[in-house]
Specification:
By secondary structure, the protein is α+β, with helices and mostly antiparallel strands. Among the domains are: about 190 residues, no CATH class; about 35 residues. Helices cover about 15% and strands about 45% of the residues. The protein has an 18-stranded antiparallel beta sheet that branches. Strands 1-24 form a two-stranded antiparallel sheet. It has a two-stranded antiparallel sheet with strand order 3-4.
Length: about 325
């Protein structure tokens, strides 16, 4: 007697096995690639990093490398995997300026004694500088108008957490000014920053964007934009009474052959504020990404996907040319 029965085709088993291996490899690559790229590293007491010399701390989250000055709020930032590049950013002075443009008070560039504190958390590397700084009239190096408390934090996200941390390729610079000894209620503050290539002669600053919101450091050799500084256009000021208020900040750039200076003019919407908090960003330019992964990573995974397609196509073609797995099975009658 002949009856219909089902027998598994060996070719189909081979195709299924190939698909399982390729799929597992694709998933494994997607899981491994981001974790390897984002592995954080931290070290302290760095003496030499590239051409930078510093006895301060150095942080890296696998994307950005930060090297800090041990005695002043200054950081050099570059891509972790890129040698002989980077820009250095630091605060140089804070001024009180009258409505006519005259400087009525300034923090002297010398005699600042900064305290450096590691405030790193589970989400951020945080190198924090704080100091009580003397404020003097511009015409006198010895007279004192009072003191101001300054704090500068450089924060590098350790890992990306949606809604909590920011872009892994950017360092957040936070400035706090407290207790400024105001000379007149109509005056405003100007915060002065200095920027320079970490490796002189290898990079230059391109002209800022039309609104002055971003300036890029460009490789002299390749012409590629490597790093950038993006000043914020608003600060949060707290007066003696009432709630904190936003106040505009206008950036003015001055570019030179050896570096750049940036004057941040804080608006007067909150007269004689007691506390000012301001945020800017310094970061590195990265290749285009998809869902947070570099395109190069997707090329690798895409190659595995292409292999899967080839295996499937080849298997189906062979399967169609083979006999059906519905075959007649001979059974002997009892």
């Amino acid at each position: 007697m002949r009856s219909l029965g089902r027998r598994e085709n060996p070719r189909h088993r081979a195709v299924a096995g190939a698909l399982s291996i390729a799929a597992a490899l694709s998933v494994g690559l997607l899981l491994v690639v981001p974790s390897a790229a984002g592995a954080p590293r931290a070290s302290a007491g760095i003496g030499v990093v590239g051409a930078w010399t510093s006895s301060g701390a150095a942080w890296s989250n696998g994307v950005v490398l930060c090297v800090f000055e041990p005695s002043a709020p200054e950081v050099a930032v570059s891509a972790s995997n890129l040698a002989n590049s980077g820009i250095s950013v630091g605060i140089t002075s804070v001024e009180e300026v009258s409505a006519t443009g005259a400087v009525t008070g300034i923090t002297p560039s010398d005699g600042m004694s900064w305290t450096v504190t590691n405030r790193t958390s589970s989400l951020w590397y945080d190198e924090s500088y704080s100091a009580a700084v003397r404020v003097a009239p511009p015409a006198s190096a010895t007279a004192t108008l009072g003191t101001v408390d300054l704090r500068v934090d450089f924060l590098l996200p350790i890992t990306y957490v949606e809604g909590v941390t920011e872009n892994l390729s950017a360092v957040t610079m936070q400035l706090s000014v407290s207790g400024w000894p105001w000379q007149a209620s109509e005056d405003h503050l100007v915060v002065n920053l200095g920027l320079s290539p970490a490796f002189p002669g290898t990079e230059h600053f391109a002209a800022p964007t039309p609104n002055g919101s971003v300036v890029a450091s460009v490789s002299n050799q390749s012409g590629r934009s490597l790093e950038y500084f993006a000043p914020g256009i608003e600060a949060v000021a707290q007066a003696t009474t009432g709630p904190a208020q936003s106040t505009p900040v206008a950036p003015t750039w001055t570019l030179g052959a050896a570096g750049a200076s940036l004057a941040l003019a804080v608006g007067t919407s909150v007269a004689e504020f007691q506390t000012l908090n301001y945020t800017a960003h310094v970061g590195v330019f990265l290749p285009a990404t998809v869902a947070g992964l570099p395109l190069s990573d997707y090329v690798v995974v895409g190659g595995v996907a292409a292999l899967v397609v080839i295996v499937v196509g080849f298997g189906l073609r062979r399967a169609r040319r083979s006999p059906s797995d519905l075959v007649y099975v001979e059974e002997e009658e009892a």
